[in-house]
Amino acid sequence: MKIEVRQVSHPDAIRGFGTEELRRHFLIESIFETDEIVLTYSHIDRLIIGGAVPATKPLTLSAPAAVGQEFFLAQRELGVINIGGKGRISLDGITHELDKRDCLYIGKGVVNVVFESTDASDAAKFYLLSTPAHADYPSVLIKPGQANQLKVGDQLTANKRTIFQYIHPDVCDSCQLVMGLTQLEPGNMWNTMPCHTHDRRSEAYLYFDLTSDNRVFHMMGEPTETRHLIVANEQAILSPGWSIHSGVGTANYAFIWAMGGDNKSFTDMDHVPMSVLR
User: Fold this and answer.
1) CA contacts within 13 A on the Cβ side of 272
2) CB neighbours (10 Å) of residue 274?
3) Are 48 and 106 in contact (CB under 8 A)?
4) Strands of the sheet with 225-231, listed across from one edge
């Protein structure tokens, strides 16, 4: 297992950041490594973001020193979405089979979490997002057809997309974790514009299903002090509560969003008028 720890950056400091400083603090460039679990522990709401790619061997999720517990989920919950080949996750000996875009909510208290692929030549890519937890809720496998599906946006504004709400109060119980996936339709590139903030919770994004020569321009920062990050396929963004989060791609793409904080309501947003953005 590999883990990186990142501290919180104050918005006043961000105003003076150059490109490399912004990328070092808010962009996670390497998440999926063959036969490895790679984690980033962020002190932004103590989110842990990572990936597990069990190609030739099973991978066991252990507790790094940053967690400070005997096992990873002693005081945490975990959401997993598979964006690769078919795989399975064993939770204390109970196995769940995950196809591409299946989601598994794993509740606090599960001791042994083991990731495997069905076919080493088409390995599973498990994207992981964990938040602190205060209660034990049952682990639940959620297929795309079982998620809440919202069709939003318009072709005229290039943001026609489907939102899949997997870990959501209307789908399964969780402590503070909310997690889902958004798929933009062909010819549509914008997400979340007009943009918003939500100071009651922080968020992370994994952009994927981009070809090697395409990119997403991710907008962040205070509404009157915006910055951008150029994001490649299977890279992730840390988004603190004070920051906007929006993006436009050079082609359509998909992204996984996940949030943790005080409020699980998906619509808890502080909308930012276009006239305010700078």
Assistant:
1) 24
2) 8
3) no
4) 190-191, 246-249, 216-222, 225-231
**Location of structure tokens 């994004």:** 205
Fold (CATH) for 2-276: Jelly Rolls (2.60.120)
Residuewise pLDDT in 10s, the chain (278 residues): 999 999 999 999 999 999 999 999 999 999 999 999 999 999 999 999 999 999 999 999 999 999 999 999 999 999 999 999 999 999 999 999 999 999 999 999 999 999 999 999 999 999 999 999 999 999 999 999 999 999 999 999 999 999 999 999 999 999 999 999 999 999 999 998 888 898 888 999 999 999 999 999 999 999 999 999 999 999 999 999 999 999 999 999 999 999 998 877 777 788 899 999 99
Domain ranges of the chain: 2-276
Token digits of residue 234: 């299977």
- DSSP secondary structure of 178-246: EEEEEEEPTT--EES-S-EE-TTEEEEEEEES--TT--EEEEEEETTEEEEEEE-TTEEEEE-TTS--E
CA distance 99 to 166: 14
Determine contact, residues 207/189, Cβ cutoff 8 Å. Answer: no
